[in-house]
């Protein structure tokens, strides 16, 4: 059920006609308040930092910064902003990358107008909303994770932080990049990597990296 509290919104999309369509959608919902719009990723990042909306709706492909890069920055700076990503591309890898960066909403643009209000209210409430057209991909992700946990029982022993770091390793991020995203020291990340390797019974210099790459779609 939609929230009765005011939800502040920011839109970022480089297509003004599409942004106008989003404005028309939220105009009929008195609980929604549009506080900013951007037509490129750099402007979006400035507005997100300054305005800190409840929800930011971001196009995945924009000039100067894309939606995935913005999600990484929001995570890195620990901003209290929930994100919805809009995309024309149903490619599952992008969905996985967005989820690994804490994105809670993910909509295909072709369905965004119809699904946007439900997505905003769900995400503002701290819940997830993946468009039904991609629900099969999400189910496959969850099923793959469960199957991998059966094969590698040590995965069940990973903490939430360790699993997140494992996912970021699979995205080919260095310890320094992970440390910046999670606002910790590279030494802390290295300690987590050692703990992950121990729990997964991985040995050798690049064994953790190989494991993460080999099972990227399952993590």
Structure explained in plain terms:
Helix content is 53%, strand content 14%. The protein has 219 residues and is of the alpha/beta class. It has two domains: 7-134, Rossmann fold; 142-218, Winged helix-like DNA-binding domain superfamily/Winged helix DNA-binding domain (Arc Repressor Mutant, subunit A, Orthogonal Bundle), CATH 1.10.10.10. A six-stranded parallel beta sheet has the order 2-1-3-4-5-6, with helices on both faces. Helix 2 packs parallel to helix 3 (67-76), helix 7 crosses helix 9 and helix 8 (175-182) packs across helix 9 (186-199). The model has no long low-confidence stretch (mean pLDDT 89).
Task: Describe the secondary structure blueprint for this structure.
Blueprint lengths: L6 E6 L3 H12 L4 E7 L2 H11 L3 E5 L7 H10 L5 E6 L4 H9 L4 E4 H16 L4 E2 L4 H17 L8 H11 L4 H8 L3 H14 L7 H8 L5
Parallel strand pairs: 1-2, 1-3, 3-4, 4-5, 5-6
Topology, number of strands: 6
Shape assignment: globular
Give the termini separation: 31 Å
Q: In what order do the strands lie side by side in the largest sheet?
A: 2-1-3-4-5-6
Radius of gyration: 18 Å
Summarize, please.
This protein has 219 residues and is α/β, with parallel strands linked by helices.
Descriptors:
alpha/beta, Arc Repressor Mutant, subunit A, six-stranded parallel beta sheet
